[in-house]
Automatic annotation (TrEMBL):
Database matches in SMART domains: HTH_XRE
Location of the HTH cro/C1-type domain: 18-72
Any one GO molecular function term: DNA binding
Name used for this protein in its record: Helix-turn-helix domain-containing protein
Length: 91
């Protein structure tokens, strides 16, 4: 069972991947938010690991970022392809 610290670290790692993918697409938070159908402030909170989300939102975010859900979660090992070191992968 994971504790709050591990949960927070996982949310932050997902947020880093989301931001890297958004930036790789050349989108600002407003444009990405429009693409995902969410508010810009929500994108900012997600990117900083300060907001939890539902599975359905995970799919929307992954689609908007042109990533698979597995890649957004760090399960595909392609962090390097979106400019992130492997150390951002959740344990």
């Amino acid at each position: 069972m994971s504790g709050p610290t591990e949960h927070t670290a996982t949310l932050q790692a997902i947020g880093h991947r989301l931001r890297a993918a958004r930036e790789q697409l050349g989108l600002n938070q407003d444009d990405f938010a429009d693409r995902a159908g969410v508010h810009r402030s929500y994108v900012g909170m997600l990117e900083h690991g300060r907001r939890d989300f539902r599975i359905s939102m995970l799919y929307r975010l992954a689609e908007a970022a042109n990533l698979s859900v597995a890649a957004l979660l760090g399960l595909e090992g392609d962090d390097e392809s979106i400019g992130l070191p492997a150390s951002t992968q959740p344990r």
